[in-house]
Design brief:
single chain; about 950 residues; Immunoglobulin-like; Ferric Hydroxamate Uptake Protein, Chain A, domain 1; 22-stranded antiparallel beta barrel; five-stranded mixed beta sheet; 7 helices; siderophore uptake transmembrane transporter activity; iron; Outer membrane receptor protein involved in Fe transport; cell outer membrane
């Protein structure tokens, strides 16, 4: 070729090559039906490894594409997703995409209760989700209150944010008020919030929901038996915000009035985005100050939390560092007095909506029974409630090992403390009852008893109780009286709990043509301690209680102080528990999702779990000194302090068991599937078994492992306007150990009756459905129908005394299981068009038996919640919502007769017939709350 032609030839070749290898792009905008952009929607193009996320305007771009045919897929939580074939020939492509709502999120990929990420439609589990948009109007009221939206989940949030109960499918018998999460696992990002439970120490103490939470995934029974540590009843997994390719955040300011116009204020915030070189961060949290839904003379809740995660993505996985700092004060409401067993109404001037009946605020120093020789004291102030602190840090990584092998590892360490300073019990104690005087710990407080207001020191009443030991009534001296001629049977409740915990979960996954095999290891180690001290308190029995300073002033004799200046008596003489324990949990598991055909899969999973409990508790004896702790014979309130005897009761037990679950899933078509599952799970005892059941006697036997068997059959389906999930279930709970709290009024001692082992069975159906007749209007309906039976059930009746000679065992086999409604549901409607949105929801709780004797029924109740919102501009929106719109006085719980030390099981049919006018203790649902919020997104 002549040299003069070579440059021209080279130019032609390069031009042709450029035309053949021309590069193109796909641009687009992703919006919702109202025209609002989806920020952070995932965009993927195949073949090739093209992916991105939408920016704050909902825009995306994929460039450097060759001509050809591609499959474009777009996904966003809470939508049905989008898939389209795109052909690129000679020009760039622009698409405008509107994602349709998937209200039940059947297309959403879930990670809870399964060993591999899978859409809800194709999973073989009864799983529900709450997405971010729905969460932001539910965080007020606490974790249990939020979970009312999950079908088939019974929640009792009447006490507030803590001291709550959550369970499903009748798996409830050991879920007592002070251990309400006994069978289920409360999780954050796939690991438990807390490894251990015992009285007044549950996972809800260390969990708060805020704007940092992205969604909630909930498993009811079923696969929880093989995917959670010692929690066969279900999993509630709160998943945090994930990485975003665009920087952004949100600030939410809320304020409102609750109950008797008690104010609440709160601020939530989060922000995150890329940091370069494939690093991403998120940080968020909240702070609040809440005067409470009921009337107290102190701030009911204050504090907050900060959470963060830092993630590095790479070609074959990711590594993430995360943490939480929680520092929070809250309290819990006790019961309210009621009368009329058939149609309960508030009694003694109290009100179902506003009465708290808690000790007022004061500050006292009570001798610490553990360190009396050092002169140590414990500060007690009921306004503190429970001070919860949690410092948690963790690391998680996912690594593709090649050849279809991958490994996932999640490790977390946490240091927790929960310091309770509150009141226990609020029973009516008549001034004719000798207990009203002998609670002081004094031997013979008989004669003229004087009650002074502990704050003003004004004399409120003076009386003569000289005839009480012979059954005669007291007599007032002068004009002063006490409300209802009674005091409140209550006590200071000081608990100091600490735990250091390590937990991790590792899974190894292998994919083949027909198998998805996962096997792994779960570990949990906890070092925990507790100290409990209780002292009686003299308190008026009225809606706004006052502390009473009480003296015995017999003529010609020294004045005897039956209480200290704050109204506390019998220092440290009611409770003394000092214990510690190490808990080790080890679990090995394996699961195979076997593809039998394109539409039929079988899941087979096994879990071997070993749990060790090793620890000790101190034996206690009264401190003995002439004149009591202070050596002063005229101060009778410090004569009964309990202290360690020097002897310890030790325990060292191990529990081993095998759980299994197997399921079939059949995809009828791309929009419909059915599944069936049988699970056999186990529940090892919690630490309360040792801490509560052995008072001053050796811990010479291990607890009983409860057995949970469940059979379920489910249907999931979806059309353009209608989505539904329904699951029929049968569940059986066996070897339930029950020990009731007892009180002996003769010697003022507290004890637990011998453990009774019982069985229960529940059958029912859960459903979840959504209907969208118009693009801006949606109706939702979920709930459960069930029948729960106490198939074998006995209750130990100690006849109000430690003496066992008059004890009896009552048999209630065949009765309806307590606190399990036959029906509960949520019915709602939501509107979202242009700049306006709103909702209206009806929560219905059916009638429940108040105890296993079936002698008292808690009436059905309804709660209505509503809200309306307005999008002011692209960044700012406002929302007004009202919880319990009609101020329902529904009753959530029942504590039995209005006597100190009584329990729900005390209200037998014979008792009610003999005491038709007696008062009893119920816990009403929380009253109306009205809240205004402003949200700013950036």
């Amino acid at each position: 070729m002549p040299k003069v032609l070579f440059p021209f030839f080279l130019f032609v070749v390069l031009l042709a090559h450029n035309r053949v290898s021309a590069q193109y792009s796909i641009r687009g905008v992703v919006e919702d039906k109202a025209g609002q952009p989806y920020v952070g929607a995932h965009v993927k193009l195949v073949p090739g490894s093209y992916s991105t996320t939408t920016n704050d305007q909902g825009e995306f771009e994929l460039s450097n594409l060759k001509s050809g045919e591609y499959l474009l897929s777009i996904s966003y939580l809470g939508t049905k997703g989008y898939v389209e074939k795109i052909g690129i020939n000679t020009d760039d492509v622009h698409v405008d995409i509107v994602l349709k709502d998937d209200i039940l999120a059947l297309r959403t990929v879930v990670v809870t209760g399964t060993f591999e990420p899978r859409s809800k439609l194709s999973s073989s589990t009864a799983i529900s989700t709450l997405e971010a948009d729905g969460l932001k109007h539910r965080v007020l009221g606490g974790t249990a209150n939020l979970l009312q939206a999950i079908p088939g989940t019974f929640t009792d949030a009447s006490a507030g944010e803590v001291f709550t109960k959550v369970y499903t499918r009748g798996i409830s018998a050991s879920a007592e008020d002070d251990m309400g999460w006994y069978y289920v696992s409360l999780q954050e990002d796939g690991l438990p919030v807390s490894l251990v439970q015992h009285s007044y120490y549950g996972p809800d103490i260390f969990h708060r929901t805020d704007i940092y939470t992205d969604r909630v995934e909930a498993i009811r029974g079923g696969s929880a038996a093989i995917t959670a540590l010692n929690a066969p009843g279900g999993i509630y997994n709160f998943i945090s915000k994930g990485p975003s390719d665009v920087f952004g955040g949100e600030i939410r300011i809320q304020g409102g009035l609750q109950g008797d116009n008690n104010p609440m204020s709160r601020i939530d915030g989060r922000f995150g985005g890329p940091m370069g070189n494939h690093w991403f961060f998120n940080i968020g949290g909240h702070y609040r100050k809440d005067e409470g839904a009921r009337n107290t003379d102190f701030t009911f809740s204050k504090g907050g939390q900060l959470r963060f995660n830092l993630m590095k993505k790479h070609e074959k996985g990711f590594i993430k560092f995360y943490g939480k700092l929680l520092d929070d004060f809250t309290n819990r409401y006790t019961g309210v007095a009621a009368k009329n067993w058939d149609d309960p109404v508030a009694a003694y001037g109290q009100d179902f909506n506003t009465t708290a009946l808690l000790m007022p605020a004061f500050s006292a120093d009570v001798p610490d029974g553990r360190r009396l020789s050092e002169g140590a004291t414990n500060r007690f102030d009921p306004s503190q409630g429970v001070h919860a602190q949690d410092k948690a840090f963790g690391v998680e990584f996912l690594q593709d090992l090649g050849m279809d092998w991958s490994v996932r590892f999640n490790l977390k360490y946490s240091h927790k403390s929960a310091n309770w300073q509150t009141a226990i019990s609020n029973a009516f104690v008549s001034l004719d009852d000798p207990l009203a005087y002998f609670i002081s710990g004094a031997q013979f407080p008989v004669g003229q008893v004087v009650f002074n207001d502990a704050v003003s020191e004004e004399e409120l009443a003076r009386l003569d109780n000289s005839g009480i030991l012979s059954g005669e009534s007291f007599a007032y001296i002068g004009t002063g009286t006490l409300p209802y001629d009674a005091i409140m049977g209550t006590a200071s409740w000081l608990k100091q709990n600490k735990s250091d915990e390590w937990m991790n979960k590792m899974t190894i996954r292998k994919l083949t043509d027909n198998h998805d095999i996962t096997f792994g290891l779960g570990l949990g180690f906890s070092n925990t301690s507790l100290f409990t001290q209780g002292s009686f308190g003299y308190v008026t029995y009225e809606p706004n209680p006052r502390m009473l300073q009480v003296t015995l002033e017999n003529p010609g004799q020294p004045v005897i102080a039956l209480s200290d200046s704050n109204g506390l008596s019998n220092y440290g003489g009611l409770f003394f528990d000092n214990a510690r324990a190490d808990v080790a949990q080890v679990a090995f598991f394996a699961n195979d999702r076997w593809k039998l055909s394109d539409r039929l899969h079988i899941d087979i999973g096994l879990r071997y779990e070993s749990m060790g409990h090793k620890g000790s508790k101190d034996q206690a004896v009264p401190f003995e000194r002439e004149g009591g702790y202070d050596g002063n014979p005229i101060t009778d309130y410090d004569n009964g302090i309990l202290m360690p005897s020097g002897e310890r009761d030790s325990f060292d037990f191990k529990y081993d068991y095998l759980s299994y679950s197997t399921a079939l899933n059949y995809a009828v078509n791309d929009h419909t599937s059915i599944f069936g599952r049988f699970s056999s799970g186990n529940k090892a005892p919690e630490l309360n078994y040792y801490f509560n059941n052995f008072s001053g006697v050796p811990i010479n036997q291990k607890g009983q492992v409860q057995e949970i068997n469940q059979l379920e059959m489910g249907f999931k389906g979806q059309t353009n306007q209608f989505s539904v999930m329904a699951t029929a279930f049968w569940s059986q709970l066996r070897n339930i150990g029950i020990a009731d709290f007892q009180f002996d009024p003769d010697d003022g001692s507290v004890f637990y009756a011998p453990v009774q082992f019982n069985d229960s069975r529940t059958v029912g159906i859960e459903w979840e459905s959504a209907y969208t007749p118009l693009s801006y209007l949606a109706f939702t309906f979920n709930g459960a129908l069930q029948n729960a039976k106490a198939t074998q059930w006995t209750v130990y009746d100690a006849s109000d005394s430690v003496d066992r000679s008059d004890d009896v065992v009552l048999d209630y086999s065949g009765n309806t299981l307590a606190f399990n409604p036959k029906i509960m549901f949520n019915l709602g409607v939501a509107y979202n068009k242009d700049k306006w949105n709103g909702y209206y929801r009806w929560h219905f709780m059916g009638e429940r038996e108040g105890n296993v004797a079936n002698a008292f029924q808690l009436p059905a109740y309804s709660i209505f919640n509503t809200g309306v919102g307005f999008q002011i501009n692209n960044n700012l929106s406002a929302h007004l919502e009202v919880n319990n719109l009609f101020n329902s006085g529904g009753l959530a719980n029942f504590y039995g007769p209005n006597n100190f030390g009584a329990s729900a099981n005390s209200a037998t049919a014979d008792y009610i017939q003999a005491n038709p006018d007696a008062s009893f203790i119920v816990v009403p649902v929380l009253p109306r709350g009205t809240y205004l919020s402003l949200d700013y997104k950036f």
